[in-house]
Amino acid sequence: MQHLLAISSSPRRGGNSETLLRSFCRAFQEEGWPVRTVRLNELNYRPCQACDRCAGTGLCILQDDLQEIYPLIRSARAMVLATPVYFGSVSGQLKIFIDRFQCWWQAKYRLKQPFVRPEEKRAGFLICTGALHKPEYCANAAAVVAVFYHNLNFQFKGSLCLQGHDARDSVKNSSSAEASAYGAGLNLARELSR
Questions:
Q1: How far is residue 165's CA from residue 14's CA, in Å, rounded to a whole number?
Q2: Measuring CA to CA, how many Å separate 53 from each of 12, 47, 61, 143?
Q3: CB–CB of 58/113 below 8 Å?
Q4: Which pick of 19, 37, 62, 194 has the fewest CB atoms within 10 Å?
């Protein structure tokens, strides 16, 4: 059964990016999609150790909570990442998560056995929020995520980057922010359901 995997990388439970993620996911649920949400800040996982032991197997040797996440991604029809923009890029939680997919890079490029085949046409999306009105910061975050999706063989379908949101709950005080996230989710869910 097709489902959406939603990854929240904010350290704040119910933070701005996570609030938008919920609106995005609600659209998928209303279109009949099951949604599985993972909060990275509640997981116990280490950064990639550059040991290169995944080169022979495509599997990460670090035994932590990400071992439970790899199969969730393998089975997801679509994935959405949500992050605050910190110092012009994704959160540390998300960057560490992304780096731990070096094993998938090895599986795809070195072993020629990707965990997701390109013809499966999986979809990826990004939601990010930031305080500063600097489009290049969101563009940088999107570039990092685009490389991640490419290496996993997920098609990067786009992003929603809302700036000027730093204070806690500021997106809840914006009449258009949650509607934008819901609309983005609805558009993608309907595109994938065709």
A1: 13
A2: 34, 14, 7, 27
A3: yes
A4: 194
- The pairing of strands 154-163 and 78-84 is unpaired
Q: Which helix (H) or strand (E) holds 30?
A: helix 16-30
SS3 122: strand
Q: What is the largest CA-CA distance in the chain?
A: 51
> Tokens representing 73?
């991604």
CA-to-CA dists, residue 185 to 23, 29, 37, 66, 118, angstroms: 8, 10, 14, 25, 22
70's tokens:
């790899």
Q: Is the pTM of this model over 0.90?
A: yes
- Phi and psi, residue 28, nearest 5°: -60, -45
Q: Which pLDDT tens digits describe the chain residue by residue (194 residues)? A: 589 999 999 999 988 899 999 999 999 999 999 999 999 999 999 999 999 999 999 999 999 999 999 999 999 999 999 999 999 999 999 999 999 999 999 999 999 999 999 999 999 999 999 877 777 888 999 999 999 999 999 999 999 998 877 767 777 777 798 999 999 999 999 999 88
Chain position carrying tokens 């290496």: 151
